[in-house]
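Troubleshooting log. The previous structure file for this entry was overwritten by mistake, so regenerating from the original sequence record. Sequence copied from the archived sheet and checked twice against the printout by T.R.
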Amino acid sequence: MGTHHHDHNHSHGKSSSLLLPLLLVAGFAIVEAVGGWWTGSLALLGDAGHMVSDALALSLAWIGSWVARKPATHRHNFGLVRAEVIVALVNALLMLAVIAGIVYEAAQRLHTPQPVQGAEVMLIAFIGMLVNIAVAWMLHKGHSSLNSRAALLHVLGDLLGSVAAIAAGAVIYFTGWMPIDPLLSIFISLLILVSTVRLLREVLHVLMEGVPHHIDMNAVQQALTATQNVREIHHLHIWSLSSEKTALSAHVVLDDMQDWHPLLSNLKHMLHERFNIEHVTLQPETTEALHSGSANCWLTQRPAQDHDHHDHDHHTH
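Regenerated output below.
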């Protein structure tokens, strides 16, 4: 219970430190969207779209911290931490639609240039750049969770978007060359696309129960096997519950069941300290039971033909 209480306070601290940056970015995204419509600048609208993607990244980090504090229920044994991943999937798909819309409009404007108010674009984009610098500073000095670092990368990417919008306004103001606006809006769209594809890849990896990218499966296997009294490790599975919570299950072979409880404690502490794996489920098996065939990995003995069909499952891990 003590650990849970600590996590609750830690999550609450992360949640509150992310709320102000989220409100700042979301608020100025609206300002830039209105400004883009008013000035006729597609680059400014693109930068607003990028700031919306930043706001979504920050909201994911905030939602992730918030739902992590929700207690588990009988229907949701792990709590609601996976909700963060579902929201990320929806956000990524929405951003793909935004990108398609901006690129389509940019193609139209390259064919038929539209007038843009260069001075106003420069001013709004410059204020947007200052907002991004302030948000980046807040995130940098805040908590360094995986989500917060991802949000910081989004905001740093948006600095490029703001600089591009300033450049578009400056070129139009000083030279009157209108095609620079749709060209730079396409550049900003590519920035959003890179971060969106990266997010989609991570989301799908989590939903497919993949091994977290920051964990080396072989290193975990070796660390478990190297622990005193462990004879063998098999059926090792590692997956993500959310971006910050990792789960592990494995079968542990040992000589004497009397060694199990101290061994279990050692393994859990090692996995938490070395690999930051919190949810650990370990099944003990003695070497004698394993060699005699009584420590079967399946719940019931399968018929011979069915056993042959699933034989590869026994040796996968």
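Confidence is low (pLDDT under 50) at residues 1-13, 303-317. Archived copy saved in two places this time.
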